[in-house]
Fold these 2 entries.
Entry 1:
Amino acid sequence: MKIGDIAFDDRKMHLRIEMSEAEHCRTNEHPHLPDTLFDILPAIRNHRCDNEEALSFEAEAQDTEIPHLFEHLVIELQVQVNGGSLSGETSWDWTRDPHGWFHVSVDYDNRELALGAVWLAMRIINAIDDRRPDSIDMDTEIARLRGIALVPERRRGTALARALVADGGAVAR
Ligand SMILES: [Zn+2]
């Protein structure tokens, strides 16, 4: 899974997520993904979710597209730092786009926080999928995101770049 594109409008961040043919796009093929995510970030269990069968998010998450889980995760990470109520949407159209492409849109208040949340969400998903969730210390990560959100506007880009470098991380793999 990788981020193909990130764009912002006044209210929403728009991500294109690309999953390769070889990857299974749905969480029912990766059951440890939602289960571990709920363990390390319990607040996400209670997310509201509009889905076709009117399931709770906790039930829906057991068999949904991984980018949809990712959408909820990017929202929760921002809410952990800034509070508030954000919404998002995941869609795809493989008659128009290549197979495996998803479009995820989420609200944001702070652009740098949103980018930091995307980067952290990717690391969390990869860590869980690689069965090394212990490599993510959620309190430390949220504190780091909070630092990014608090930096005065003109210095924010630098702070995020520094956080990325400090961790040796890349947004996508
Ligand atoms: Zn949802």
Note: The chain has one domain: 2-167.
Entry 2:
Amino acid sequence: MQNTIAKKVSFSGRGMHSGRNAIVHMKPADAGNGIRFHRLDGKAMDNWIPALWDRVIRYPACTCIANEHGTSVRTVEHLMAACYATGIDNLDVEIEGEEIPILDGSAAPIVDLIDSVGLRELGGKRKILEILKPVHYENDHRKFSFEPYDGFAVDINIYPAEYGHMPWTGDMNPELFKQEIVAAKAWGRLKDIWLPKIVGNFLKKPVLRGAGLNTAVVYAFGRPINPSGLKHTNDMVRHKVLDIIGDLQLIGGDIQGKIICHSSAHVTNHSGMATLFNTEGAWRWQ
Ligand SMILES: [Zn+2]
């Protein structure tokens, strides 16, 4: 059965990249509509943006989607991850602003908000995308693969300089994702945060304006400078799992298959999905 949120809930806060405030209303939607964003503040005739992989546009260090009128919404990945964690298939997300608020840097506050009102069951079968043959995307050291698998499994690997190989491997389901993954915060290195902030301001393409010690775990000299933001020592890879599965929600259904990633980034998640859909005979909707 497909689901939606039981009733409207709202939250607000600053965007990770724009630094600007936005108000978000998550509202029930009909079966078959999928997850859609609706900009309330834009000038375009049609401000609806379907949350689908072929609507992704390039923006540094986040997932940004746009419609044919050029209306966009940025940093959708944690809200999309919250939909996976709670089992939501259909949702209308109204936004007064340009970017989903970063909140505490994790998906937990959005999951808690959805759980506070619960779900409503709708008619119709859930959509499942079955992987039929291996598909591989590679760009430099970043790799993203899909493989056939009886279920849904992830094999996520990152290699942070100070920590060596940090993997997260195994079967995945919404309950496990909610317990182990959604509370892991965004993270970054101090040098990788302050320099893009300054360059972004200079180029008038703001990135990470809202990044700080309340919205991310920040590393310097090989250790977190705000360790209270960590839930587990391997939160770096847990947040990577959060971002990857959040991005994979742009497929528009569940996956029957296995995901294998090495040093992934949002851009490789997007390219991996595009490679899958553009490979003949590699997938089918069940
Ligand atoms: Zn993230």
Note: The chain has a mean pLDDT of 93.
